[in-house]
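User: These chains co-purify. Model them together.
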Amino acid sequence: MSPRVVFPNKVLPYVLLAPQLIIVAIFFYWPASQALYQSVLREDPFGLRTTFVGLRNFERVLADPNYINAVQNTAVFSVAVAFLAMAIALLLAVMADKIIKGKGFYRTMLIWPYAIAPAIAGMVWLFMFNPAMGTFAYMLRSSGYAWDPLLKGDQAMWLVIAAAAWKQISYNFLFFVAGLQAIPKTLIEAAAIDGAGETKRFWTIVFPLLAPTTFFLLVINTTYAFFDTFGIIHAVTGGGPGRATETLVYKVYHDGFVNLILGDSAAQSVILMVIVIALTAIQFRYVEKKVHYG
Amino acid sequence: MATVELNNVRKVYGGKVEAVKGVSISIPDGEMCVLVGPSGCGKSTLLRMIAGLESISDGTISIGGGVVNDKGPVERDIAMVFQNYALYPHMSVYDNMAYGLKNRGMAKDEIEKRVKSAAATLGLADFLQRRPRELSGGQRQRVAMGRAIVRSPKAFLFDEPLSNLDAKLRGQMRVEIKSLQRRLGVTSVYVTHDQVEAMTLADTLVVMNGGLAEQIDTPMAIYEKPASTFVAGFIGSPAMNLLTATVADGGLVLAGDGGTVKPRDTVLPEVGREVLLGIRPEHMKVTDSRNTADLTLKVTAVEILGADVLAHGQSVDATQTGGEIIARLPGGTRVEVGDTLPFAIDPGMTHLFDAATGKRI
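Assistant: Joint model of the two components:
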């Protein structure tokens, strides 16, 4: 343990923390408290009258079949995005770890997609798979597959999952590469001498030792799938067709800023906040127990 | 159990750097061969080639009669103890030892029997459910040993296994490794840069330098008859003193106006040739009078070790190019910095090396 820094002045530490605290307060606590406040109010679309309605916004939202649909979509979407993004990143990291020549080049190439804005990434996938002009859409259709994400909800869902996962692979890749490098080479050699083949070595030695990285990424990817994929969904499907790709965060936006039902939207964001807090807590409580920090 | 044969083994990296330049060693069944040498002499590379972790550029390695050049580490049936122990941090001590057996598809009760017996041998019986990080350095070292012995492999390979331990524990583990190896009778190759480990553990000692085996013999033979000035300087602590001398009629004249030494049991080379006269610090004897002295030292430093005293000094003539000369004197000898000490060189304890090549004459 590094020794703790002791400030002789009692005020100075708070002054030093202030910039960060102010940013968090303005951009996190204030909007969050606004959402909490809004969630118990009902406003008319023009903002002329506001009435206190207690928990009725929540009752309405939870009874709404469209909301249940968004919950289901989010579950499918998040699990698929987190799993795909992590599995593919791990595969790429393991492969890149084996390369001796041009290691740096491969890594740089694999990290680039992370620098692309979500909306742009969404557009790229939209163009590639657009039924009218997309190259891949053409290939899919000419191979006999009825590809039409504009009409078929499940196909639209796969499209946004693919785009969202693709965007996150780079980030996960970076962490997996770092995690792999932290595993001492002699452990792998010892396992080889102990008679474990390459696949066995991966599952019994490498994968368990990567657990802290994997767990960290699981939390990050879940949060990503819940919130940061808004841009991709907005660009690719706009929640359609027929609400097939409408996730919780997208519905918050749609109800609040398109339909201007601010009370309902606020109630939804409060529920979303609770879900994310609960998920993270569960992950830390149960998954982390099985994680070995060396 | 098996013999290990290395036949003109070479290792070249990238077609240019030659790490091992043709080493041949034959290790009889059940014996311990120690590879010793300074950093970068190729000893670890050689061991990793025996283990199958490095490819063999040229020559052959056989374990138990069959050439294993093209076999992977598993098929060679060897066990290796690494310098950093390489224990699996996420597994208990039991699982660490059982891992190799499970991979070979051994029955569960047989695994349990073997691990329990190895743990009992190594005094680890109470720690089987612990994780490596909950163990002390010495215990981790034992687990690494245990992982090697449960398998009853054809050969043990040790890669500087004691260098991460403190001095006291190192001495203790050294004795334990020796007796364990004796008891199990498994052919072993042990790499170290510590000459005490090398001397005490080896049946056969291989002194390596610059990718070559400078000398292969029993530790005592190497101590008594080092093949070169390199070996002479590497084995023995403090290192052997090397004095420049010229061959004269019937003896050696030390450079400066030092005395004449007549080494016994040595055929002197031709008169006038430059040689290096080697004398170990423990064979330097203080004499009573200047007249009988072969060499006079002006003491520059004194190290009192208890059992003996090390006197560092320069030849008073200051023409000895060998630099500092060290004498090991009996404990309790009173020596002060600045003293001049006359030494007689025991003619039966000298070593003669060619001044140009450093090879023993």
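Chain B has a mean pLDDT of 86.
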